[in-house]
């Protein structure tokens, strides 16, 4: 009996040790990408809410965490849309109202455009922020930061009205409409109606240098903290991209939006998600992963990038940010979403050359009139674009798919067609066809 008892206890201890030694999927993702991000001098912080629990991870350099403050960029547009829908709930406006009802005439802005066309980016208006964003950010010129960009709107194409065309000008105008209706500053509305009710204690109306726990912004591998000027975010980005926050606060924001009525009534939230077009609702993007709907709004500003997605059916969420203008390694986001969909996170594999050798050759991507070459050299396989001056090694994701780790490009065999591959990157998918061997 002592022997049996000893064996039973030993097996139990082994089982317990095994259970507690197993890595969580987010730790697997961290281990998969950490070294590569360090080599590239990049950093990412990730927060995932799954099964009513929160996991956090810090990858690469810069020690970015869920408590780090960063610019959420265009994710500000969801906040702006919420404020507009709150005014709709109060009866102070209708989405079908023309913007000329609230704003005095602005050159090259059709006053007959409706509020809804601005919310869904279907106005056809001219973009004013993105044109000279680098010049404005790095100007260190008081006159530049204080200029009124709405006076620089150029003529728009009337045929674009009703077509989705992402444009910051729409949300700059929505911010002005909010101020006209409420007789309050846009930033005061954020504080009173969103930040304070949700206790977003580390969220700010605009980014500035003196914020505690501010993540170091970088651009082209250089620290650009010295160029941060509150007027860039307050006067230029404004209702289209001014807010600064943390991953913990953004989790609280999205959870409150989708799971409570603290911000919007259920009917208004449904309107936000169902209106617009297949890509964009009212201040929020629509996407899908293996048939699962996700909603969210990323953001990019000089020095920061933010990405997120919420699955209402499972009440699951991911939020991530980096301290550069774009999220590095697009496959990280794919793995995080895969984790939310209970997929096994696999490490990068060495390529089975024999399995892919017949796909070497030149391929045409018609949409960009771009020639891509798949080449095998020294028992490695590369994706080459001479026009872009790039040559990147491919790894194997599975028996049918190759992946380029840095850009997130994946190339998948097309069943029954040895002269074509499915090219995917950042949600864009097309078929590239071989033009010679």
Q: How would you concisely characterize the structure shown here?
A:
The protein has 437 residues and is α+β, with helices and mostly antiparallel strands. The chain contains 13 helices and 20 strands.
Characteristic key phrases:
437 residues; alpha+beta; Beta-lactamase; Lipocalin; 5-stranded antiparallel β-sheet; 20 strands; disordered N terminus
Describe the structure.
The protein has helices at 2-21, 25-39, 76-89, 115-119, 133-138, 142-145, 168-182, 186-195, 230-237, 247-259, 266-274, 331-340, 353-356, and strands at 43-50, 53-60, 70-71, 218-219, 222-223, 244-245, 285-289, 292-296, 299-301, 304-311, 316-322, 361-365, 370-377, 380-385, 390-393, 395-398, 401-403, 410-414, 417-425, 428-436. With 437 residues, the protein is an alpha+beta fold. The chain folds into 2 domains: 70-340, 3-Layer(aba) Sandwich (Beta-lactamase); 353-436, Lipocalin, CATH 2.40.128. The strands form 5 sheets. A 9-stranded antiparallel beta sheet has the order 15-14-13-12-20-19-18-17-16, with no helix packed on it. The protein has a 5-stranded antiparallel beta sheet with strand order 2-1-11-10-9, with helices on both faces. Strands 3-6 form a two-stranded antiparallel sheet. A hairpin with a 2-residue loop joins β13 (370-377) and β14. α2 (25-39) packs antiparallel against α12 and α3 runs parallel beside α7. The chain is globular, with a radius of gyration of 24 Å. The termini are far apart. Residues 1-21 have low confidence and may be disordered.
């Amino acid at each position: 009996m002592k022997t049996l008892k000893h064996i039973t206890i030993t097996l139990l201890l082994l089982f317990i040790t095994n259970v507690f030694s197993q890595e969580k999927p987010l730790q697997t993702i961290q281990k998969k990408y950490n070294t590569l991000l360090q080599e590239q001098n990049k950093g990412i912080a990730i927060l995932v809410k799954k099964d009513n629990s929160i996991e956090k991870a810090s990858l690469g350099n810069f020690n970015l965490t869920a408590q780090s403050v960063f610019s959420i960029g265009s994710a500000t547009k969801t906040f702006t849309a919420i404020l507009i829908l709150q005014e709709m709930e109060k009866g102070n406006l209708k989405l079908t109202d023309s913007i000329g009802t609230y704003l005095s005439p602005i050159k090259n802005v059709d006053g007959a455009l409706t509020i809804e066309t601005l919310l869904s980016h279907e106005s056809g208006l001219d973009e004013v922020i993105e044109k000279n964003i680098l010049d404005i950010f790095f100007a260190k010129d008081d006159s530049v930061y204080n200029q009124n960009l709405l006076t620089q709107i150029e003529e728009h194409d009337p045929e674009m009205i009703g077509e989705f065309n992402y444009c910051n000008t729409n949300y700059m105008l929505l911010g002005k409409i909010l101020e006209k209706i409420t007789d309050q500053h846009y930033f005061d509305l954020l504080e009173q109606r969103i930040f304070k009710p949700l206790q977003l204690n580390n969220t700010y109306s605009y980014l500035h240098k003196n914020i505690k726990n501010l993540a170091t912004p970088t651009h082209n591998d250089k620290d650009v903290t010295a160029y941060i000027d509150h007027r860039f975010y307050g006067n230029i980005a404004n209702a289209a991209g001014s807010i600064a926050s943390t991953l913990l606060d953004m989790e609280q924001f999205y959870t409150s939006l989708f799971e409570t009525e603290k911000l919007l009534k259920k009917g208004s939230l449904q309107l936000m998600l169902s209106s617009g077009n297949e890509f964009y609702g009212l201040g929020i993007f629509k996407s899908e992963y293996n048939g699962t709907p996700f909603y969210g709004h990323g953001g990019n500003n000089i020095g920061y990038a933010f990405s997120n997605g919420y699955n209402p059916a499972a009440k699951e969420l991911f939020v991530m940010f980096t301290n550069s203008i774009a999220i590095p390694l697009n496959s990280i986001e794919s793995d995080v979403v895969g984790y939310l969909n209970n997929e096994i996170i696999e490490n990068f594999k060495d390529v089975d050359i024999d399995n892919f050798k017949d796909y070497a050759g030149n391929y045409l991507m018609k949409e960009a009139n771009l020639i891509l070459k798949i080449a095998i050299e020294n028992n490695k396989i590369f994706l080459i674009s001479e026009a872009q001056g790039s040559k990147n090694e491919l790894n194997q994701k599975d028996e049918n798919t190759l992946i380029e780790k840095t850009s997130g490009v994946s190339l998948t065999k097309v069943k029954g067609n040895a002269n074509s591959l499915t090219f995917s990157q950042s949600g864009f998918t097309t078929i590239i066809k071989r033009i010679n061997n």
